[in-house]
Amino acid sequence: MRLEIGPYTASSAAGIGLVEMRESIVTKRTGLRRNDLEGCDLDTWIGRVEGLEKVALPEGLEHLQSRNNQLAWLGLQQDGFLESIIDLKSRIGADRIGVIIGTSTSSIGRTEEAYERLLPTEEMPEEYRQPHVHTLHSPGLFVATVTGLTGPAMTISTACSSSAKVFASASRWIHNGFVDAVLVGGVDSLCNSILYGFNSLELISANQCRPFDRRRDGINIGEACGYAIVTREGFLPDARLHLAGYGESSAAYHMAHPHPKGRGAVIAIDLALERAGLTADSIDYVNLHGTATPANDRIEGRVLAKRFSERTMASSSKGWTGHALGAAGILESVITLEAMSTGVIPGTLNCEEMDLEIEFQVITANIDAEIRYAISNSFGFGGNNATLIFGRIDG
Amino acid sequence: MARVDLAGVGIWSKSFSGWEQFCAVVNGASVDADPKLKPELIPARERRRAPQFVKMAVEVMDQACNMADVDRSSVATVFASGMGDMEITDYMCRTLATMPRTISPTKFHNSVHNAATGYWSIATESNAPATAVSGYANSSAIALLEGATQAIEENIPVLVAVQEGAAPNPFKSVYDSDQPLAVSLLLMPTGECSSPICEFRIGVSGGDLPEEKPVSLAGVDLNGNFIVELLDLLLVVAEGDNRRLDLPISPSGTLSINVTRPGNKGHG
Fold it and tell me: Is B132 near chain A, with CB under 8 Å?
């Protein structure tokens, strides 16, 4: 059974909706800015979504207020995505459509705010007593509530692979017949837990992140959300893209450091190729995890060199968006799907002096080319890895 | 509809630890006042750094594998919790509100929702897939759906661990339980387990929510814990009944589980 991909959308520092994102990619304009997040004094750059604080949740859903849900709602309104959901609901029924959303920190930003204002009794102030917000499932609940989808709803939280894994779970639910379609996505917003947390690990850069550059010195945290509709074959007459394969693995090495030889990453890539029935040579493009930490890019280069030849192009798009963590999987899947649809393959923004010690050379400039099969890689804390392969539907 | 075999069960609360002790309590034995929580699977050095929440998960995951003849490194893992590790969230938020630059890097990387499956994969040297999910109050049903579909689609054993911790003070207004509970279920594709405890046939349907019916075990107070409904399922398994059970999976849907005991192939 083929899993088809219908309408999709993404919002990040590189643009709210696909039109702005395309413009940023073509003009090589970064969405990164010097950290100006309220309440955070770290010397770094961030990928903040402009004006997010002013987004109002729909009437009646004020009790779900959080920065993460504001981002979820802003993203749903782009590119006619909500209208697509309404159309799909009318055709196959709200109860036959599941919701699977990835996030790393959910609405913890709101919990942080509540803790800054704790009453002397240690209770949260009245307006912060939001049971559906202070839970990992906050984004899944919000998306299910606001779209009226009544199939099973789940939030996946496996650090930076979260919203790549949504495609694998959706594929299994659909193939088993529990649902006919799934709204997959990811939402992760800027919060102090992540900024100060990565600061404690000495992984954030005081500069714009420079993936695969020899001067790279860490990540920039970004916020993003993205969504796609995936269905069993035949539900989307206009579908031109499909999920050809996926692979999930554990590195079994360390909670916060990648395996030196990229063991988990190689397994995830091999599983995805096997499921797709493809050889590495049939992959035209790889959107890399490419975080711009010295270790990640070196190891990912080694993994690529092990499997791919020079005919496969590879790049990291994090110079545009920062590292969107739990939303990186969906954001970079959408960037990959866009490259397949538009024929514009993004280069590696901010990679000016390529690190020649990395075993696989990435593309730095944007390239116009036709892609038949493309990979999106996502690797996370706890050694959690996911690789997705997308393909074009001919005809 | 998904069919999987139940090959092992793990359970830990402040009143009992392990399947045998749970069954004994069901049959009227008095509860264990304070069962130990010291999962031997995690090396001592790592165990000192592992959060209590991770220890709960690894303990019940290990218990479930002990009941079945299974290679731990071949097992995929599905961890689920509605509220996650509230103790570590409490630490993070308190520290951020006062001295944000003093966040402990170890506590930060332990704060990921997939911490337990990370520790498990490292301890068992497993490269098998691992996921961590949440369905708020419906996390039990979501975890069973995710675990069963994975066992069938990938044709591998899947170790499902569902748990909720005790709420720190600030969380009590949104989640009112001070009783931790962890449950693990080892699901296997049909035919892969030589002596399954029982078979689960799992389906999703719309309709009314099942009636609220808190489990009552003498001397055990778990009310308020989101996943107490799993004890209903374990009671059916323990009593050897063939029965259907419904768990809420969405505001208007239920996960139905038909529990079927194998004819004369019962465990043990």
Answer: yes
Q: Which residue segment(s) compose the domain that A358 sits in?
A: 3-392
Q: Which residues of A touch B174 (CB under 8 A)?
A: 124, 129-131, 134
pLDDT at A127: 97
- Hey, is the C-beta of A292 within 8 angstroms of any chain B C-beta? no
- Stretches in chain B below the pLDDT threshold 50: 264-268
**Residue A131 belongs to a domain with what CATH number?**
3.40.47.10
Which residues is B222 bridged to in the sheet?
A: none
Q: How many domains does chain A have?
A: 1
Q: In terms of DSSP bridges, do strands A33-34 and B158-164 run parallel, antiparallel, or are they unpaired? A: unpaired
A382 lies within 8 A of chain B by CB: yes
pLDDT tens-place string over residues B34-69? 899 999 999 998 898 899 999 999 999 999 999 998
* Interchain CB distance below 8 Å, A255 and B1: no
CA A113 to chain centre: 25
Residues forming a β-bridge with A185: A101, A227
ipTM above 0.85, yes or no: yes
A249 vs B contacts (CB less than 8 Å): 127-129
Give A10: exposed, middle or buried? Use CB within 10 Å, 0-12, 13-18, 19+: buried
Evaluate if pTM is beyond 0.90: yes
Any CB–CB contact under 8 A between A131 and chain B?
yes
Q: Which domains does chain B have, with CATH numbers?
A: 2-260 (3.40.47.10)
Annotation says A323 is catalytic:
yes
